[in-house]
Amino acid sequence: MVVAQASAQKASAGFTPRRGRPSAAYLAAISEKILSTAQDLFLSQGYANTTMDAVTAAAGVGKATLYARYPTKADLFQAIVAGRMETWRTTEPAPVGADQDIQDWLREYAVALLKAMRDPEIRAFDQLMVAEAPRFPELARTFHELGYMVSIRAIAERLSRADGEDTPSARTLLVAKLFASSLIQWIRQEGGISEIGDDDCRAAAEAISQLMVSGRAAWRG
What we know:
The chain has 221 residues and is mostly helical. It has 11 helices and no strands.
């Protein structure tokens, strides 16, 4: 609520109309203002309670300006998630090298994934998705395609290379999903009752990567 109120106060003056054709920088600034304001509202008010009218009021833009860019609330939310996912991917260092032993690769990838899940912004989006997905399945689809499946494909491709496959099989994709899901669910459960530290994440990453490799003969069958 505080975040949303602050955004509304900052945006109260809105954007001053300019004569002539607006510059690309000016148009980009409007889009960024809409996205950042809407993100604050979604995370503080929830998806269901955030209206397009509330976004225009808080961002200080007209309805025509908002709807020309994002015709629906779902379009607006997807644009926010896509932008944040891109930022998270480009700012996070590559966790491991492609030539590492498969168990080492899985462990370090797991550490990187758990580190990302501890980021306050990522946690806020994850909590929003979990809370709102039953009523708004488009939220789950957006997170699934732009976040979860990006990780799944990276894991599956590395597993397939270790097994000499040109492309991941359906079985390899399933194993990648089980690997990532176990980590995500672990940090959701444990993080809800206690603070998760670096040592906790590394211990969990070590355990799940060892378990995966120990059962490799079974899941390769």
